[in-house]
Design goal:
Blueprint lengths: L13 E8 L2 H17 L12 E7 L3 H19 L2 E10 L3 E9 L10 E2 L5 E5 L2 E9 L1
Antiparallel strand pairs: 1-7, 2-4, 3-4, 5-7, 6-7
Helix pairs in contact: 1-2
Length: 139
């Protein structure tokens, strides 16, 4: 009988991200900043003016799916470009689409590796003072 090796499955944990904003663009920006703070494990540093600006144009089925898509796009770009996006500006936002500009830093280390945002966990609620959102992140 052959000897095999067993490789443990990577541990996946869930974290719920909660943010508030006075309007939907501010809410999406806050979600981007909260994601960056989670990844860095600290308050956000100043983004250098010389940091490359990237454009994002996203479309989704509805506003909650758009929130998950937004977070997943930031996560994906962070992994590919080895950046944490510490400057996010949402220029336009509708029920199904978003146009934004992002700039990031290349940190010496990422404290929390975020793998993805769940579409099933994305929630946006309107209240008297603005909006709240929550999203489930897999780390």
């Amino acid at each position: 009988m052959e000897q095999g090796t067993v490789h443990p499955a990577p541990q996946t944990h869930e974290i719920e991200l909660r943010v508030e904003g006075t309007g939907l663009p501010a809410l999406f920006e806050e979600a981007g900043y909260a994601l960056a703070e989670l990844m860095l494990g600290a308050a956000l540093p100043e983004t250098p003016e010389r940091a490359e600006e990237e454009q994002l144009v996203l479309q989704s089925a509805d506003i909650e799916a758009l929130l998950a898509h937004w977070l997943n796009e930031l996560i994906s770009r962070s992994q590919v470009k080895q950046r944490v996006y510490t400057s996010v500006v949402v220029d336009t936002l509708s029920e199904r689409g978003l146009r934004a500009r992002i700039r990031g830093i290349q940190p010496p280390a990422v404290r929390t590796v975020v793998r993805a945002a769940s579409f099933r966990g994305a929630r946006i609620r309107e209240h008297d003072d603005g909006f709240t959102a929550s999203a489930v992140l897999y780390v």
